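Supplementary notes for students who missed Thursday's class. We covered one full example, reproduced here. Read the sequence, then the structure, then the short commentary at the end.
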Amino acid sequence: MNIQIFGKSKCFDTKKAERWFKERRIRFQSIDLLRYGMSGGEFDSVLRAVGGIDALIDWNAKSPEIDLMRYMDSAAAKEDKVFDDPRLMKTPVVRNGRQATVGYCPEVWETWE
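Structure (token representation):
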């Protein structure tokens, strides 16, 4: 397993995900989403794994950009905006090869072992 956790340093769900993997002694790579972001290939892989851009957006965030994105019809425009501003992503984004989850999903991670 090659686990990557993309998260924000002040996100509680990211810390819970890291703790979940540590408790099970599963090695992972932690990546600060705000500092380093995702490469284009990683972003595309995550989009395919989670089922599209709407699953990756943090719709509960209090941000004017999120409010504007609610009315966007173009998925490509949403993808560009989220790729350029990772603060709009729901975290943690956990990758295992071609598989990925968004948010705290231990029930899915258990099937990866």
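Commentary. The chain has a mean pLDDT of 92. The CA atoms of residues 11 and 91 lie 7 Å apart. If anything here is unclear, bring it to office hours.
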